Amino acid sequence: MTQRDPLDGLGFSSLAIHAGQEPDPLTGAVVPPIYQVSTYKQDGVGGLRGGYEYSRSANPTRTALQECLAAIEGGRHGLAFASGLAAEDCLLRTVCNPGDHVVIPSDAYGGTFRLFAKVYERWGVTWTAADLSSVESVRAAIASVPGQTRAVWVETPSNPLLGVCDIAALAEAAHSAGALLVVDNTFATPYLQQPLALGADVVVHSTTKYIGGHSDVVGGALIAADDDLGARLAFHQNSMGAVAGPFDAWLTLRGIKTLGVRMDRHSANAQAVAEMLAEHPKVSAVLYPGLPSHPGHEVAVKQMRGFGGMVSFRHVEGEAAAVEVCNRARLFTLGESLGGVESLIEHPGRMTHASAAGSPLEVPGDLVRLSVGIEDLDDLLADLDQAL
Ligand code: PLP
Question: pTM score, two decimals?
Answer without folding.
Answer: 0.96
